[in-house]
């Protein structure tokens, strides 16, 4: 059991080290020895776990995408029991989603995807399945439950989830100049409030969730 646990931990260290190096150097300039050094393992150990550089890249990006997804799914949890003030809960959730979208890990993942998509076209499916698609599904589930309980208008929950995420991320990408400009937390809050206000104008039930 201890040996198995150690092997899993070592593989995780390799994946995290690989992502760090790929994000810093790009795929072409990254070398396996540098990844091994970053992970704190011997170079042959890297090959024992992941057979070549291309396989290492794919698994490192997938692992990074799944870690990012886990954080975003956790951020949605307050919507399970949003309390009396639905607007405040949506704003809190939206604000946290934008913080996660802007963190170094997520920005590095997007940069890698943009820069290496022609070399690894299959990686888009991996990242999409571990990222936007799953997040939209999870948010749609929360919104469907809110509609069933009479907190939101009954509509297509997946479409509502897509629209809420677009209202959050669209302005963020524009203001941040596609991630090249750092946004402060106050500005993230401003984007969130505007997104939630627009969303509730479309989906709120007036006697349960006043707009003004």
Task: Summarize it.
The protein has 10 helices and no strands.
Question: Would you give an account of this structure?
Answer:
The protein is an all-alpha fold and 212 residues long. The protein has helices spanning 2-25, 32-39, 43-49, 53-75, 86-102, 104-116, 123-130, 132-148, 157-175, 185-203. Helix 1 crosses helix 2, helix 1 (2-25) crosses helix 4 (53-75) and helix 5 (86-102) crosses helix 10 (185-203). The chain is elongated. The N and C termini lie far apart (58 Å). Residues 208-212 have low confidence and may be disordered.
List keywords for this structure.
212 residues; mainly alpha; Arc Repressor Mutant, subunit A; Tetracycline Repressor, domain 2; 0% strand; disordered C terminus
Any low-confidence stretches, pLDDT <50, length ≥5?
Answer: 208-212
Shape: elongated
Largest sheet: none
CATH class of the largest domain: Mainly Alpha
- The number of distinct β-strands equals 0
Helix content: over 70%
Radius of gyration: 20 Å
The appropriate CATH architecture of the largest domain is: Orthogonal Bundle
Termini Cα gap: 58 Å
How many helices in DSSP terms? 10
Strand-and-helix sequence, N→C? HHHHHHHHHH
- Determine the structural class based on helices, strands and strand pairing: mainly alpha
CATH fold call of the largest domain: Tetracycline Repressor, domain 2
| Total individual domains | 2
| Relative strand content | under 5%
CATH H-level superfamily of the largest domain: Tetracycline Repressor, domain 2
Mean pLDDT: 89
């Amino acid at each position: 059991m201890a040996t198995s646990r150690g092997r899993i931990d070592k593989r995780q260290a390799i994946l995290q080290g690989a992502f760090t190096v790929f994000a810093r150097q790009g795929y072409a300039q990254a070398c396996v020895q540098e990844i091994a050094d970053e992970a704190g393992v011997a170079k042959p150990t890297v090959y024992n776990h992941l057979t070549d550089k291309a396989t290492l890249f794919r698994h490192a990006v997938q692992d990074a995408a799944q870690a990012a997804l886990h954080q975003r799914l956790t951020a949605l949890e307050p919507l399970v029991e949003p309390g009396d003030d639905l607007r405040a809960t949506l704003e809190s959730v939206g604000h946290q989603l934008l913080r996660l979208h802007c963190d170094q890990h997520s920005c590095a993942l997007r940069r890698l995807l943009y820069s290496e998509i022609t070399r690894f076209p299959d990686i888009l499916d991996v990242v999409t399945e571990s990222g936007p698609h799953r997040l939209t599904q999870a948010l749609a589930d929360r919104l469907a439950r809110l509609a069933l309980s009479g907190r939101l208008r009954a509509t297509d929950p997946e479409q509502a989830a897509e629209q809420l995420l677009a209202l959050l991320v669209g302005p963020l990408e524009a203001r941040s100049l596609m991630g090249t400009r750092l946004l402060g937390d106050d500005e993230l809050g401003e984007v969130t409030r505007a997104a939630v206000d627009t969303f509730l104008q479309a989906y709120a039930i007036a006697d349960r969730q006043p707009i003004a």
